[in-house]
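Integrase: structure, please.
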Amino acid sequence: MLKADNGAELTRATGVSCLPAHFNQSQGKLNSKDKLCVEKNEVIQALVRDFEAAARRVAIEGHEITKAALEAALVAEANLKAKNQELAQKLESDSQQKFIPNLKKVVAGLREELAHQEAKLGYFQSIDSEESVTRPRDLFTARIDEFIRVSPVAHKRPSTKNSYIYLRQTIERFNRYLQIQDINLATMNALQNWLLETPILTVKKQTLRRNSSVRNILIHTKAVFMWFADDLRLPTAFFRKFKMVDDNANENHVYLTAKELEEFASHPLRADAELLERARDQFILLCSTGLRHIDGVVTKADVFDAQDDKGNHYKELRLHQQKTSKWVNIPLMPRALEVLERNNYQLKAIKNNHFNQALKQIAKKIPSLQHIHTQMNYNKSEAIPDSRPKWEFISTKCGRKTFTDWCFTNDVSETTVAEWLGHKSTMMVQQHYKAKGDIAKKEAHKILFKQPA
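Here you go.
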């Protein structure tokens, strides 16, 4: 039985029968008096894992944990498990056809994998010393749960909380018995190597994690550890020696050109497509101001009259950013003012996942967004290209980058752009918002078409 937030009970039969005296209610499993206790407990635990996976799915998707949501998640998990089993069978069949003729190569690969697993086992045995066995178990996964409950960082935004929920699931797969006292330089290196080398199984294929994803997991791991380090008197100096995988900054800046934004803004929508209309208006505001999605609900009280040093009057947006807690003053372009006035300065908030889905529905129909766009990601130093129609890459983040591209195209200084975006320095602008490759292409005419002296 699994209880939803409102107390509703979701029940499933395990199909296991036993005598009442053979079942330990406090532990939820059969004792050794039942001759088939091992097999029956495995059946019970399989159902428990299904319930836990369903609850995690609902939490990660940001939905309220209701009975209906849990039942839907159970169905989704069952479908995913069936697809994974089908994929595993196909992989096994394909591997047999591919590798059996070359048995020596298979054996060599198995030996190499065995050596890798033995090395990993040696590491886990080294941290599972007599000292760690005798002290009370302080699981790192439990500390992550506590961090999610009490830390204001984890509750700053729903997506941030979901990142720590995902961290818990990752640590569970890496080493469910890992204790917070066992986190040291060797542990961090082992975790990083495991993240880089362990494929993620999706419905379509197995993929390796990108460096950026690995870095995020490691950063969140450090955040949880540092939160408890002082109270538990744990050493933290080893983080100075820990070398995180290279970020491999890429030119993966997805933004709309002036033509694409104009098509996006003028594309006709169905009269009953209220969500699409709202999402488009709010996205145009983001493209015209550089605001994050979380700050996109602007009211009349946020708009002020301003004047430059030459006496020119204009409207200015003055807003307290939620993520950085910094005030920004952003000049409002005519397109942004038009959106605000047309909506009577009452833009309603839209959930991030609904927002992105609506944007993709519109972008899918825009002719100029049908060309293939390639992003280059990295696992260690290996490049992983991701080529898809550009409309598939459109999300709320594109608004902020569309605004910065417009700024740089019009020769606005990096210092000014950083001020409008709410960053303390130009470093973040250069690293995450300035598409240097595209800017270089636009500047190529200065040397390619320069008349000889």
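Notes: The mean pLDDT is 82.
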